């Protein structure tokens, strides 16, 4: 299993929306690096759900439920979407400031290339963030 981080502005689509909807199509990604990450996501992989711009916190865990397919928001076949389902809210949201202050996370993609909307998370980074969230 691989781990990921997916960003969404809560005013556009929040983790609470995902819980209510029970699943969603993660579409509209128009960055080449993020597209590569979407193509590498497999069913069962887990992702942190990160609220960007408004709050800047990891607030939940989602699971990939459908692998990359043609993005329904465009006719350009270069772009893909995935489907995700909620797993659960995390006990304690983990802020970007807390992540940046944790030296063990200094190489995390969120710290190095923060604007990327879909990014990988190493197993060690996942474990550290889960610890920070009161999950371990």
Can you describe this structure?
The chain is of the alpha+beta class and 136 residues long. The protein has five helices and six strands; from the N terminus they run βαβαβββααβα. A six-stranded mixed sheet has the order 2-5-4-3-1-6.
Q: What is the topological layout?
A:
Blueprint: E1 3-8, H1 15-21, E2 24-26, H2 32-40, E3 46-51, E4 57-70, E5 80-95, H3 96-101, H4 109-112, E6 118-121, H5 123-132
Parallel strand pairs: 1-3
Antiparallel strand pairs: 1-6, 2-5, 3-4, 4-5
Concise synopsis of the structure shown:
By secondary structure, the chain is α+β, with helices and mostly antiparallel strands.
Number of strands: 6
Provide the gyration radius in Å: 14 Å
How many angstroms separate the termini? 18 Å
Instruction: Provide the residue-averaged pLDDT.
Output: 96
Percentage of residues in helical conformation: 25-40%
Q: How would a crystallographer describe the biggest sheet?
A: 6 strands, mixed
Could you give the order of strands across the largest sheet? 2-5-4-3-1-6
Unreliable residue runs: none
What count of helical segments does DSSP give?
5
Q: What percent of residues are in strands? A: 35-45%
Write the H/E string, N to C.
Answer: EHEHEEEHHEH
Shape: globular
What structural class should be given to the helix and strand makeup?
Answer: alpha+beta
């Amino acid at each position: 299993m691989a781990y990921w981080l997916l960003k969404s502005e809560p005013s556009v689509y929040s983790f609470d929306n995902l819980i209510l909807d029970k699943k969603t199509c993660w579409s509209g990604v128009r960055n080449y690096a993020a597209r590569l990450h979407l193509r590498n996501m497999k069913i069962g992989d887990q992702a942190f759900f990160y609220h960007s711009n408004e709050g800047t916190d990891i607030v939940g865990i989602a699971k990939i439920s459908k692998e990359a397919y043609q993005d329904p928001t465009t006719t350009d076949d270069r772009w893909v979407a995935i489907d995700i389902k909620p797993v659960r809210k995390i006990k304690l949201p983990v802020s970007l400031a807390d992540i940046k202050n944790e030296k063990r996370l200094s190489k995390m993609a969120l710290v190095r290339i923060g604007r990327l909307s879909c990014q990988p998370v190493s197993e060690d980074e996942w474990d550290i963030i889960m610890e920070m969230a009161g999950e371990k």
